[in-house]
């Protein structure tokens, strides 16, 4: 049956709003809510024996991989190599025997990612894939298939596939942590509880749609926009900048908040909106001092944080968007929503073709 937009103006908008449902649907295959355990669909190798993970992907899927690197290292203490598929293929990577190579792709057909997968397979790595199309080449060639259940994604700019990838990767990182003896029963149950809350938190984030639509009028006139984040929310800053570039054609850059003073700070003036992604937590104070550096140069800040964060640092911002208070393992999923809505509404203000942005393809099956 043809996929319809229903009451939505664009597929991208529909797909953004589907996220609570499809993330819940995806998590269902990875969590046992009665036992409060994480569980993978099918697995016939010993995770506790894996000492290195190599993550390879392109585009938005690469940023999901970047979040996963933070999670794997922080929660499971497993070292992770991460690369764009187009770089990985040609840089003669050193692969550790017995390693796991993890490929992330909505389509399962991106040419560079598929070539990287075949290279790793030939080198004897165990191949795991997080893909949204279960009949795809990558799905067929993997040892371990970790499907996302986002359903068909029509908008060229990936949204719901991304949050579903994060959901799978969070469960996978937690599973590794359990197998590596880093999460006891109680801590595992706690993680599962937080993951089960993700769909409700996504809904809470979506409730800010009107507010973000109004705010988009402040972003639309900009020539450049800077996104800042730290830790697992740094990749979200990169994803935010990518989304804005893709569909609104505004130049945007994502940066690690602490690295801003080594370059991008030179760009800051009243005309450059700076979008800060900063859930409250151990890194928050550091980001607040980066915000002060921006403010001292006349920069206009949009702060995306939770209640505690906004109470502390919301004053003097051009705009603020309040996210629910969430566990660090859920924050990147939840903060993806405002990032997507900012791009979507800014593109709407500019009147660009949101679902079919110029020069871009949904799936890049040629080099
Ligand atoms: C294209 C799409 C992006 C996507 C990337 C990777 O550039 O426009 O939205 O993130 O390919 O695609 P994949 O199917 O491998 O996730």
Automatic annotation (TrEMBL):
Its EC number is 2.6.1.16. It is found in: Cytoplasm. Signal peptide: none annotated. The keyword Membrane does not apply. Residues 43-182, 215-357 form the SIS domain. The active site is at 362 (for fru-6p isomerization activity). The keyword Membrane does not apply. Keywords: Aminotransferase, Cytoplasm, Glutamine amidotransferase, Repeat, Transferase. GO terms for molecular function: glutamine-fructose-6-phosphate transaminase (isomerizing) activity. It catalyses: D-fructose 6-phosphate + L-glutamine = D-glucosamine 6-phosphate + L-glutamate. Catalyzes the first step in hexosamine metabolism, converting fructose-6P into glucosamine-6P using glutamine as a nitrogen source. Homodimer. This is Glutamine--fructose-6-phosphate aminotransferase [isomerizing].
